[in-house]
Request: fold
Amino acid sequence: MWLLCGCTSKCLLTSSSRRVVRYSHNFLGKSFNKAACLPEAAGFEGVSDHSGLQQFSVSQTDRFWGAVARQRLTWISPFHTVQDCDLSQGRIKWFEGGKLNVSVNCLDRHIHTFPERVALIWERDEPGSEVKITYRQLLEATCRLGNLLRRRGVKRGDCVTLYMPPCPLAVASMLACARIGAAHNVVFAGFSAEALADRIRDAQSSTVITVNQGVRGGKVTELKKTVDMAVQSCPSVQQVFVAMRTENPVVMTARDVAMEEEMLREAVVCEPAAMDSEDVLFLLYTSGSTGKPKGLVHTQAGYLLYASLTHRYVFDYHDGDVFGCVADIGWITGHSYSVYGPLANGGTTVLFESTPVYPDPGRYWEMVQRLKINQFYGAPTAIRLLLKYGDQWVNKYDRSTLKTLGSVGEPINTEAWDWYHRVVGDGRCPVVDTWWQTETGGICIAPRPSNPDAEIVPGMAMRPFFGIRPVLMDSEGKTLTSNNTSGALCIAQPWPGMARTIHNDHQRFTETYCQPYPGYFFTGDGAYRSKEGYYQIIGRLDDVINVSGHRIGTAELEDVVNQCPAVAESAVIGYSHDIKGQGVYAFVVLKKGVDVQEAELARQLQDMVSKSIAKYASPDFIQFVRRLPKTRSGKIMRRVLRKVVERDLDGLGDLSTLDDPAAVQEVIQGHQDLCGKEQPQ
Ligand code: 7RM
Reply:
């Protein structure tokens, strides 16, 4: 059995240490009113509350998604089949026969009702310099760009690579691709030339869109130069569109196109392509733990529907709200919750160009005050970082507009959850810990939607979204049916938002996600299901540590270590140990300005783990570091830490997503200082 926590009676994964938070404010209507809470479900008989509706969505899946798809999307021609899926074969098709255009669903249909509503608030790097773009303006830019792409030979089915910071022209570029039926491939504009080249080559793009320079955290980056370097090894590239983010000119070659100038010559009307539901909308590369990055493929109708429904209900987004997702558009979170979900819902969405600490650690909350943000969606890594700086950076600003706080990307440890809830949200806003993946397209497990009286347990993603049936598997591949148990997290039936394949490698797709547990979608994560049936994500299964036969989740250990007031964050890994199989090794970052005796603190931390989990779980080594190696999206790269401790520096694997290579060098040095030249034993 996957007993990831190893000690079901003592650890934080059990209900003994559980605290529950209830909110009295209205979420989806006090008494369940189908028409009011989910108009799409008004015709479903026998459904009288939220859990009834969830059950309906997974048992009468076709009726549920059929009704929702007809209601929420604008179709050029209707679909004839809700789904045709066979997970064991890796066949996933939704809404076949249907034709639609995603950009029409995100723009044109809103223009009829509110052309002057703000679609995008571009929160530029310098605070106070935001730019607002209405739906009419965004449609116009999208059409001009769609025409330009078409005129310059981009065809339906081509794939355009975008290397741009979050900005209105990046959104217009995504939507312009969608308008003419090309796929987009957004590459985070912080990746190296090499990483960019890999992704351009794999996607076989002939067109790249970029900006002259990027501006982030007060620093200018040479994005166009990086593209120039990348395309040297990309024979497929024929043209590079260059938009001007700053006023500094860059060298333009015959291959380069001055994007804004050329756009001005184009018409503001652009005929939308009638796309099949299952045509490709975008590729998005995500790194596997080994091997080359995978280009996950999302398609039109199912993806958009799922992004829109989750955005509406997980965050309780209402017409007129300002939605602030601070993820970069280079991540799936930026795709689904900065762009597609909010725009499909006719919402106002923030594009955040800066960093959480620029010009100071109050940036997020100053922005919340200035833009009157109603839903704030961020990552635990940023919350943990800001927590280090203290409450005064939050308290300075008026956060009374906030209604929902969201968290995504990693398990949110109890200390960070509490701070987010108590300090940022004044104890007033539900905190939704949302679990999902690039592969899932949208949020799959989150505390909401649920009725307003439903409890929220700190640090738990809790409840499956409509249409999602999570299951836990043991190591023999059997379904674990009881509660208060842990296992490999799978999803038992297809949902419209899921990825369809890996670009050019369907076999890798089926092998990775469909074959480990035939008939199920395998997430690669471990999860715990509480006595009450709520889900808590433990982390990647390949991160789990096994000490003398006891399986321990890294999240569980880190949660204990992070509770020490001197600690800002930590990463725990297992290293091979002759006797125990694996031993525990902790990397610890201290809070700013903390002055402690490291040896003494290490002993304290070991004690804390012994007391709150078990003696065997206590770290053998504690290495203090200034920062942890993280991906550009803020996930701790435990794989890299494991390799450092195993002294396998040649085996570090794909580092293209690594944020700051210097962090790895520091960790290597510190490790040698701590353990000498020998491997720890
Ligand atoms: C949205 C995103 C996916 C992986 C996933 C998990 C981890 C994401 C949570 C989480 C615990 C969460 N896509 N993860 N959200 N772990 N609690 N709420 O992050 O493709 O970049 O990463 O991230 O391991 O499998 S992603």
About this structure: The first helix runs from residue 34 to 37. The pocket of 5'-O-(acetylsulfamoyl)adenosine is lined by residues 286, 332-333, 408-411, 433-438, 461, 523-525, 537, 539-540, 633 (CB under 6 Å). Residues 643 and 652 are 6 Å apart (CA to CA). The domain at 104-117+132-273 is CATH 3.40.50.980 (Rossmann fold).
